[in-house]
Amino acid sequence: MRALVAMSGGVDSSVAAALMIEQGWEVMGVTMKLWQGPQGEAPTAGCCTVADAEDARRVAARLDIPYYVWDYTEEFMSGVVGGFIDDYLTGRTPNPCVECNRTVKFSRLLAHAEALDYDVVVTGHYARITSDGGRYRLWRGIDSAKDQSYVLSMLGQDQLSRLRFPVGDLTKDQTRRIAGRLGLRTADKPDSQDICFVGQGDYRDFLAGQGVVPVQGPIIHRDGRLLGVHHGITNFTIGQRRGLGVAVGEPLYVTGIDPDSGVVTVGDRSDLGVHEVTVENLSWVDRPAAGPVLVQYRAHGQAVAAEVSVDGRTAVARFAEPQPAVARGQTLALYRDDEVVGGGIIADTA
Amino acid sequence: MEPFRHDIHGNPSGSHAASRRAKNALEDARDLIASLINAHPGEVVFTGGGSEADNLAIKGRAFSGGRRGAIVTSPTEHDAVLESAGFCGSFGCRITFAKVGADGLVDPAEVASHVTGGTAVVSIMLGNNETGVRAPLEETASAVKAAGPEAVVHTDAVQAYVSERVDVEALGVDLLSLAAHKFGGPKGVGLLYVRSETTLAPVVHGGGQELGRRSGTHNVAGIVGMAAAMAALEADRTSFRPRIEAERDAFEAMLAELAPDVVVTGAGVPRMVQTSHVRIPGVRNEMLLVRLDQAGLAASAASACQSGAATVSHVLEAMGMTPSVARECLRFSFGWSTAAGDGARAARMVAREAGALR
Question: Is the ipTM of this complex over 0.85?
Fold first, then answer.
């Protein structure tokens, strides 16, 4: 039984590889090269840098498994970066890690693994897969602080049948201890917090570098007052408090971004409440689930109660309580307790 | 090389007996190497490999005499030439690229047309390390000299030397790079042939070894090894060349039979005998490499970038291939360890593994 482990150079995927070997799989490690600079230079800051590939290579050597680096820069550019820029230009807040999982990691990589006769693809995600009479179920990871099921909520039966998340049953501490025991150089490596193609800079610098030209527009309070001028809607996200450039003596939050008019609307905290969202691009882990569910609308956030009604690939989720800072473009992941039921992209808020 | 690991351990730059033994060995190696390439011993400059030799040729000429000389080269050169030229460019040297056809060849007259009074060096590699295409170097050198008698011609012969005879007079070049590991010698040692009267600014400054052209204590063991490898190569070349060519041709013939849509790069132009660069339509080279690796056949997808991913080759790009076409290309190399029948055997493996991916 052959397993292809996607190795980012971080401790989680290093240990995932080690665990698969311990379980008797024939393992191969692959690092996906996703991004390069304008002259083809490899990134040296943020995630997935040349140094990260070196770390992955050394871990693979230590584990005595074959290791390759594959170039997915084209797929990544079209599947992730293009959408990232488009989202900001249309007043949405993208989650590129979700799009990378959807269009590159759990589609192209899975297909390539199959072409090479690998039975499963393995990653270091903190999530759990169980199988129940031929049906696959996806759960939050044991370590709730590290749980990454949110970014995996687009997965379905076909993919889950060919995926493994070995560290989902561990806490981060346990993962690091295993890495230490195995003498892996990544045992103490800090987790990357950055978007891999933005690196240590800000997403605004990245957009500027990609030629996005900011267009000025008005900042208007919900009560109608014109408060000032902004320098591009791409500088804002719903719920944002800092960097507004205007002050009225009380905290102001971005409550709306209109790409057509260029208006950024602000209000106070109570104005942030969203009652319901429309979700598109809906997918289910197994079968559609309507009715009461728990929904999570941010990568790092609690799931909250909502009532969902489904219509094909779209749904409306009505929150039990109004929720602050719900942004279009983010993923809405649906749960029943700790089990992932499905997910989609927030298209509209009300 | 063995004696130099323990007995002959002196520093050839010293003056005592131990140093003299090392120095003698060094100079014996130099004499031998010079005779093999039809040069004078004083025209052989030892370096730490092929890349360093290229750096010395390009930067050494561009910055000689304190100027910012112009560089004429081709877009298919090895990175060591291109990056060196780029570096010179960042200091104000004018860099001009000759045109390369879809077949990978430069046109001697077109190269010569770029030569001006300010040209410090014209650099055209003898054989391309990716495609195997063998340049019309002799004609290019003549055309360049006719256009500007003061013009200096450099060739990176690192890939070509193993199969192509190097006679610096016959080639008509003023500078020539070699790397020992490409012809069975140790890694980390090479040389730059520098025709007398050709001025060079050093890249490595220091104690003035190599007549000031490349300072630093010599890698005596490495240099002795390089000389021995060159002597063995020359003795062997008359049998090595046709044998390797036969296996390469058998590989391409069998591949054409089993997978008729495979395209051989440079099929109609002069190529070095040890390289077969092919395009397999519909098959991503990264995937095929893994299958071949697991089946026991080592191939390469052009050059690797720092992270190890196969990059879209600048050589193929210069020849007009789009990235998606370039991603279907693989290079197969033939050498000393190639046995009779390996060519046909390899072709069958490639056809089978590629077939599984199509």
Answer: no
